[in-house]
Amino acid sequence: MNIHRFLLATLLFACPLLAVYAIKQTNWGPILATPKSRQTGDPRAKVTIVEYSDFQCPSCASVDPTVHKYLELYKGKIRLIYKYYPLPRIHENAMTSAHAAECAASQDHFWPYHDRLFETQLSWAKLQDPATSFMAIAEEVHLDIQKFQACYADPSPLKIIEADSQEAQAHQITSTPTFFIGDDRLVGSVVVTDGARAIEKALRQ
Amino acid sequence: MRIRANDLVILFSRLAIGSVLLYAGFMKAVGPSAEFAAVLETYKLFPPSLLTPLAIGLPYVEMWTGLFLLAGLYSRQAALLSTLLFASFLTVISAAFLRGIDLSSCGCFGSDILSPRYTFILDVGLLVLSLTTFRLTKLPPPLSLDRAFPKV
Description:
- The complex is a heterodimer.
- Chain A has helices spanning 3-24, 58-73, 94-106, 110-119, 121-124, 131-140, 145-153, 157-170, 190-204; strands spanning 39-41, 47-53, 78-84, 178-181, 184-187.
- The longest helix of chain A is centred in the N-terminal third of the chain and has 22 residues, at 3-24.
- Chain A has a single domain (37-204), classed as Glutaredoxin, CATH 3.40.30.
- By secondary structure, chain A is α+β, with helices and mostly antiparallel strands.
- In chain A, α2 (58-73) runs parallel beside α9 and α3 runs antiparallel to α4 (110-119).
- In chain B, α1 (5-30) crosses α3 and α2 (33-42) packs across α3.
- Chain B is built from 6 helices and no strands.
- In chain B, 44% of the residues are buried.
- Chain B has one domain.
- The interface between A and B is medium-sized, with 29 and 31 residues.
């Protein structure tokens, strides 16, 4: 074989490997602090699970019971942090549902609201204006309706959602739900099959 | 030096296919492989044990094919490989369409989202170009390492 051709081929094979390796050394930025209202589990737990999720995403709703199961099973050992990552390009009510959830969070009722949003997802996901459904859930979880309505009409909670979304993009998250458990990144429904293994691994570290 | 029409077609095709493959592979390779594996899972075509190796390996195969086409080294072999790649992509995406799978993104360009419909059109175009390049590249093409460093 011609030595020049061999050397050039080796160089072409090596270039992408080196370039990708160099870029992957980049730090994509920290996971920012999240208000207590969007955290559940033991605050002193050894393992923190960070979930980036979209209320209108069917996979996010389908993995929610599993996440609850883990919180029960590993009580005192894990803590869950919820981060908004609405994908309005494919889910038209993703942003409004996150907005409603943030209004529930401001009244310290994020988790019951979060659960009901997922449980009733099919009923509001395709509505042109899901506000009535969101109000109904607010009543169901005993929120102060006047405060909730005022918050829902106010665009300022969207800044919080956008900050979480920017953080997700910085971590190159393209699918929801994405979970960070210790060193593991679990994307989509993988958390159902691999979540317990990832938690056990993080607990051992 | 006389440049034939075929040479121009080959040059254009090499640049077009090479750039797309290099970009697509790079965007996926620098992103987390778990993200690409999750997209591959939505096609409901691959066994779970194959998802991670495919998500890690495929971007590099794309980048290498793209680079060899751009540089014009082993051009004919690279054109054959790109033909096989685009034929595979078309098969996978057509299978998803036929089974009514709603893909929000094809996953082709990592964090850059391209709708599966546009991907299908792009893949058809690039398959035609790859096949043309493969058929026309009988001799080392112009502006290529194959011509600068011919086989002994």
